[in-house]
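Human: Note token order:
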Amino acid sequence: MSDATPYDAVLLLSFGGPEGPDDVMPFLENVTRGRGIPRERLEDVAEHYLHFGGKSPINDQNKELLAQLRTELDARGLAGLPLLWGNRNWAPYVTDVLREAHEGGARRVLTVFTSAYSSYSSCRQYREDLGGALATLAEEGRYLSVDKIRHYFNHPAFADVNARGVAGALEQLPEPARAGARVVFVTHSVPDAMNDASGPPAAGGGAYVRQHLDVAAEVARRASALAGRELAWDLAYCSRSGPPSQPWLEPDVNDHLRALHADGVPGVVVAPIGFVSDHMEVKFDLDTEARETAGEIGLPFARAATVGAHEQFVAGLVDLVEERAAQARGEAPEQPAAGDLGPSHTVCPVDCCRNLRAQLPAATGEDYRAPAPA
């Protein structure tokens, strides 16, 4: 029988996305508030959403992930454990969800982010939003504590499902292109400075790129075993949104596809290992723009599936829930990890993945607690 004590609920915390055309600009304003992004840039990004009817695919994908998590929790004897869903940038907002959880009796909540890696935008910003939500609720006389599972970029389930996606995409290429096809792993670009500040400062920064390179090598190793040959691979980036004067991680996936074609690579498998599901950066930046680039230059192209709500990935997330619960009870559970980096820290250090724009309260698992009532 599984045991989630001392947690009263599990929260799936995601980015959020618009549900229709009227939501798009308000959503983008939420995402970019305080960053001084020009209106014209927001309008450009809005076109990505409007290309798909103004609805982000992330919401339905989160609902499917929730359904599969519920099934897995129930199968392990945790049918009574509430499973919540909250977003950072659109309804259901995390503050509202935690308020409702408190009203239902929850006092200690375990969070699963729909983001697997370390950086400000993929971890600390989530924690800052949790910190702000807890502070708001404390002002209302509602007191909660929130922990999170460790980063799962190198959990064996995440690596294995991604490897199966790569192997499956390879079979989609025309047969003449398969033998020399290259795997292009893709993740969201971030400013160089954000990567430099990612992870605990004591570890030297650069955790975002280091983690992606580690899991890419592991996924390529596993996919090579499935394919029966060693697969060559690279790491590229998509979705840059900063000004030209600001250095961001490169190469851009479109530029990289052109370079591979010029070098005579006969085909590519694009594998979005930086993303948990097929949200906008996958559906537009890869399935639309990168595919169009490949078509223009005559480069055979296949896109690997994300882990989504795959049953093995879902089981891995629930394993991590049980692992974190055991740690909260003072136990020392096994922490399986693929690749070379080992399991990530359970509790983020206070200065981990620094916010380079401001220092805001962040719920890290142990270093933020709303003050107890007098």
